[in-house]
Write a structure and sequence with these properties.
Keywords: Membrane, Transmembrane, Transmembrane helix. By secondary structure, this protein is mostly helical. Helices cover 74% and strands 0% of the residues. The protein has a single domain, classed as Orthogonal Bundle (ABC transporter involved in vitamin B12 uptake, BtuC), CATH 1.10.3470.10. The N terminus and C terminus are likely disordered.
């Protein structure tokens, strides 16, 4: 029995766990083949592009979903810090596989290392006098240093095609990695749905949230761990260097044209999906790096949103665009518990 792209479905315990998702991926691939037959789009005639498009659609939802909270908490750079630690996680996975002759997905090791790093960022901030940017800088430097050391050691015949992790690659999104991304997507969306009010309260008034009995520290840890999951998931096509952009740029664009937290969140998802789909299409036909093209498209959309916001303010059709982090949560009716 084989899955999409001829992948054996029961080759390992992980494959057995992911078997239902492989089945879902095969259904998605059949749907894309039908869309290709109707539209004549060449890029939808290949299974690896089906997985890349699905991964891109998931990134377009979960990145701004978490990024909206981060931007309004002025933690936009945490994605960059965790991306570098995810790079270390990939290096750890490749190193362990080479030395111990295992077959562990580097993306799984990246999830573990990135989540641990996310907790370290919070613990450093909680137990020292350092500001968040200091703890992020420490973790970023440590993660990237660990990754480069493991790669440079080259022990046990370790051979690393590291470019795909640094810059992302549409062709390397395997069925296993796509299935792992779907699991991360489900965890992120479900967690935000269950804790939305608490996260919103902590985001806009941390002191009041603590006074009202909300365990602020725990929700801060939940947020950074969710950020780590987004970073690892998006790393497949965005690459380590550019993955943080999807957490920030669509949200920054949405804040120029939205006047509420919910409006900003929904608009950022739409902008992110637009950037991802256009970026994947352009990168395929131009044979360019997907991550770079997606970010350039997202920045172009951001510039357009800035222009639209200025035009609306000048014509008096709307109030001036708020500063980053100043979107009024109350107007969306998102009052917390």
């Amino acid at each position: 029995m084989t899955g999409i792209a001829g992948r054996p479905l029961q080759a390992s315990p992980l494959d057995q766990l992911l078997a239902p998702l492989y089945w879902a991926l095969s259904l998605w691939s059949e749907l894309m083949f039908r869309v290709a037959a109707v539209t004549g789009l060449e890029l939808l005639q290949y299974p690896f592009m089906h997985r890349a498009v699905l991964v891109g659609l998931c990134i377009g939802v979960m990145a701004p979903l978490i990024g909206t909270f981060l931007v309004h908490r002025q933690l936009a750079l945490i994605g960059d810090a965790l991306a570098h630690t995810a790079f270390a996680g990939v290096a750890v996975g490749l190193f362990v596989n080479a030395v111990l002759n295992l077959d562990v997905s580097p993306y799984l090791s990246a999830v573990v290392v990135a989540v641990i790093a996310a907790l370290f960022i919070e613990l450093i901030s909680e137990h020292t006098d350092a500001y968040n940017d200091v703890s992020m800088a420490i973790v970023l430097s440590t993660g990237f240093a660990l990754g480069t050391v493991l790669i440079s050691i080259n022990a046990g015949g370790l051979a690393v095609g590291i470019n795909q992790y640094l810059f992302g690659n549409l062709a390397t999104v395997s069925a296993e990695n796509a299935a792992i991304l779907l699991v991360l997507f489900g965890v992120i969306v479900a967690t935000v749905a269950l804790t939305r009010n608490q996260l919103l309260y902590v985001t806009f008034d941390e002191v009041a949230a603590e006074v009202s009995g909300i365990p602020v520290s725990w929700y801060n840890r939940v947020m950074v761990m969710l950020t780590a999951l987004v970073v690892v998931g998006a790393m497949q096509i965005m690459g380590v260097i550019l993955v943080a952009a999807m957490l920030v740029v669509p949200v920054a664009g949405a804040s120029q044209v939205s006047r509420s937290f919910s409006g900003s969140l929904l608009t950022s998802v739409v902008l992110a999906e637009l950037a991802v789909l256009l970026g994947i299409g352009v990168s395929y036909y131009a044979e360019a790096t997907a991550g770079g093209v997606i970010v350039l498209v997202a920045v172009a959309i951001y510039v357009g949103c800035v222009g639209l916001g200025k035009l609306r303010a000048r014509t008096g059709s709307d109030a001036p665009a708020p500063e980053m982090g100043a979107v009024d949560a109350d107007r969306s009716g998102d009052a917390s518990d």
